[in-house]
């Protein structure tokens, strides 16, 4: 420990040491290339099974061209928050196009999916209200709920009966909101949105879904979870992100016009943090264009994911409850997961170990993410390494 920090920071040094001792310290890898099916790390080309770049758009020529053209016309930064001088034609166009794409009444965009949750939840509910929140909801939903100062009632993961029971016990509040991830980011299972809709409608409760991992993945041509289940107009708020399948960065709030109007008045990250940059907005617009004209990339993503999952299961890996291209290899022990990731890396495969606090203690895993940018040969190569490392560590026989 370095005493130059002084006594007031000793607790941080101890906590960092603790993380290392418990195999929970994040060692951050730096990419020396573009994000794609292969990436360069430490000067080596690695097969990348690690990213949320589902459709391979992060390095797509059409998105790059669109961003460059937009920079020539509009510059780079917005220079202001949306409500002062930061709203450009590109932002308006993007919101209109996203609304059409998702068949929502209206859309407002944010700087990220994280800020979308921080904007919309506290705008809709407050101290006198209650939020029913799935136990495995994403950190940004949890933080949005906390910021709202509403009472938070967690229901068991994807358990509609438990949600009903919790609603029945909870009557003394002014307004109520049910909120769930659409696709759960660490398990790859899908929320029972049609049943959540029924419950919300029965009790006249606001319903919100965060479709970060469904945007560009679920539904016709990647139109998201509401489209996947045919629930247009029945989910009050659909949050999404353009940081995953869209390959860029940015948040989406889609829903009824009146809700979007209100978020533009009271969503704090909208009012107090600058707008999406020009190249981001332009690249996202191009992504919408691309998805509207062809579902080829979405189809390839699913084909790759189905093949990978089937083969990993056939080898004997436990892939949990995954129903989407998120494929967890459930290992349990954090040390084993870190060693697994380390050996994958040695063998040219980049896939990170995920442990507490991202998942519960004792539920460490490797999260295998393919992209439409992978060829069948890439998948075969990757599978061969997963099998070798799995056998060497005694995870499979
Ligand atoms: C990734 C994720 C977010 C955050 O999205 P960003 O655009 O990266 O900020 C929010 N919610 C869920 C469910 C996510 O998986």
Proper CATH architecture of the largest domain: 3-Layer(aba) Sandwich
Largest sheet: 7 strands, mixed
**Low-pLDDT runs:** none
Question: Number of domains in the coordinates?
Answer: 2
Order of helices and strands: HEEHHHEHEHEHEHEHEEHHHHEHEEEH
Q: Would you give the CATH topology of the largest domain?
A: Aspartate Aminotransferase, domain 2
| Secondary structure: helix percent | 40-55%
What is the top-level CATH class of the largest domain?
Alpha Beta
Structural class: alpha/beta
In round numbers, the mean pLDDT is 96
Q: Please provide the count of β strands.
A: 13
Approximate strand percentage: 15-25%
Q: List the total number of helices.
A: 15
Query: Which superfamily, in CATH terms, is the homologous superfamily of the largest domain?
Result: Type I PLP-dependent aspartate aminotransferase-like (Major domain)
Radius of gyration: 22 Å
List all distinct small molecules, including ions and cofactors, that are bound in this structure. pyridoxal-5'-phosphate
| Cross-sheet strand order for the largest sheet | 3-9-8-7-6-4-5
Distance separating the two termini: 42 Å
């Amino acid at each position: 420990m370095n005493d130059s920090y002084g006594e007031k920071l000793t607790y941080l040094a101890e906590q960092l040491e603790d993380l290392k001792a418990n195999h929970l310290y994040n060692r951050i890898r730096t990419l020396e290339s573009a994000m794609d099916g292969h990436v360069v790390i430490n000067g080596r080309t690695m097969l990348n099974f690690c990213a949320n770049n589902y459709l391979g758009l992060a390095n797509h020529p059409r998105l790059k061209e669109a961003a460059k053209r937009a920079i020539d016309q509009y510059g780079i930064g917005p220079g202001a928050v949306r409500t002062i001088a930061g709203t450009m034609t590109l932002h308006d166009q993007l919101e209109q196009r996203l609304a059409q794409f998702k068949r929502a009444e209206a859309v407002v965009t944010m700087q990220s999916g994280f800020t979308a949750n921080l904007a919309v939840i506290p705008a809709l509910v407050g101290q006198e209200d209650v939020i029913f929140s799935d136990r495995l909801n994403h950190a940004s939903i949890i933080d949005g709920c906390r910021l709202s100062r509403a009472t938070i009632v967690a229901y068991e993961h994807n358990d509609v009966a438990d949600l009903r029971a919790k609603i029945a016990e909870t009557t003394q509040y002014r307004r109520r909101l049910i909120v769930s991830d659409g696709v759960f980011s660490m398990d790859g299972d899908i929320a029972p949105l049609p049943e959540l809709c029924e419950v919300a409608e029965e009790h006249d409760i606001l319903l919100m879904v965060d479709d970060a991992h469904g945007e560009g993945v679920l539904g016709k041509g990647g139109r998201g979870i509401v489209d996947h289940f045919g629930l247009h107009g029945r989910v009050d708020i659909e949050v999404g992100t353009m940081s995953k399948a869209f390959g860029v960065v940015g948040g989406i709030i889609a829903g009824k016009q009146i809700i979007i109007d209100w978020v533009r008045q009271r969503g704090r990250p909208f009012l107090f943090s600058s707008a999406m940059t020009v190249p981001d907005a332009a690249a996202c617009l191009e992504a919408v264009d691309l998805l509207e004209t062809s579902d080829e990339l979405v189809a390839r993503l699913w084909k790759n994911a189905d093949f990978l999952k089937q083969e990993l299961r056939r080898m004997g890996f436990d892939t949990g409850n995954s129903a989407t291209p998120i494929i967890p290899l459930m290992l349990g022990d954090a040390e084993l997961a870190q060693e697994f990731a380390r050996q994958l890396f040695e063998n040219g495969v980049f896939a990170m170990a995920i442990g507490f606090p991202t998942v519960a203690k004792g539920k460490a895993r490797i999260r295998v993410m393919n992209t439409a940018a992978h060829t069948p040969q890439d998948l075969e190569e990757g599978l061969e390494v997963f099998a070798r490392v799995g056998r060497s560590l005694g995870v499979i026989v």
